[in-house]
Amino acid sequence: MKKILFPTDFSEVSKNAFIYALKLAESINAEIVTMHVYQLPQANYVNVSEYLHEIYDVTELSNFENYKDEVPVLRKIAEANNLTHIKISHVLILGNLVPEIKKITENENFDFVVMGTKGATGLKETFFGTIATKVMNDVKALVLAIPEHCKYHPIEKILFITQYKPEDTGSFVRVLSLSKIFKAHIDCLRVASPHHEVKDDTREDWKVLVENNEVTFHYIKGEDVEGIILNFIDLHKINLIAMHVYHRNFFEKIFEISLSKKLAFHINVPILAIHE
């Protein structure tokens, strides 16, 4: 059985993302482990030593109570979506979120990390939005980030953002495997500067891998990479974006895109980060 790690901060963003975790678990026959990571307070005032133990005990108890209260909420989400047959267990960990996610996924061989994320709002990026980009960059498991306004929709159309480089082949094969599970169409897209010379284009090699899968290869020239991709998502009714993690700068830009686009676009499609 495959394993999905679901980090949660008890927010509405996380609860929304949990539906995707459940649906993915059903599709790939996986169990879900929910995970909440908390930190102890930093005590900086004088004569604190005699109170430290009491402060830490109260903090740990509070986190345990919060998590214990959250479990029935997640169970209700499973019930509402007729997915109570999915095996779910829960972990509460003291530490820093990204290192703990990285450690548990490596030690326990998780296949996916599914987590909610918020983009930039006003002048600052929210905590979980920042965390999502770090997890995408650092964690070797497949990371599926669910934006806050993304409502669940069956995965029917996958956009694989690529440079058609040989090192993308492994990621492309993984996307092919997912497309078979979801019975989804794949659009492969490269966006390049009009002045950029195309090298190491693997499209012809990839066509051999495709067999009977529904895959369309696209190549668009333009300077506004993020804008072109967002237009493509909207035009082709994309349900899932997948990309190799060397696009890390794009991860950071995509969550801030609404600022530069004057709120004309909101990224509301799940993003799958793939490592080799």
TrEMBL record:
It comes from Flavobacterium limicola. InterPro entries: Rossmann-like_a/b/a_fold (IPR014729), Universal_stress_UspA (IPR006015), UspA (IPR006016). This is Nucleotide-binding universal stress UspA family protein. Residues 1-146 form the UspA domain. PANTHER family: SENSOR PROTEIN KDPD-RELATED (PTHR46268:SF22), STRESS RESPONSE PROTEIN NHAX (PTHR46268). The lineage of its organism: Bacteria, Pseudomonadati, Bacteroidota, Flavobacteriia, Flavobacteriales. Signal peptide: none annotated. Belongs to the universal stress protein A family.
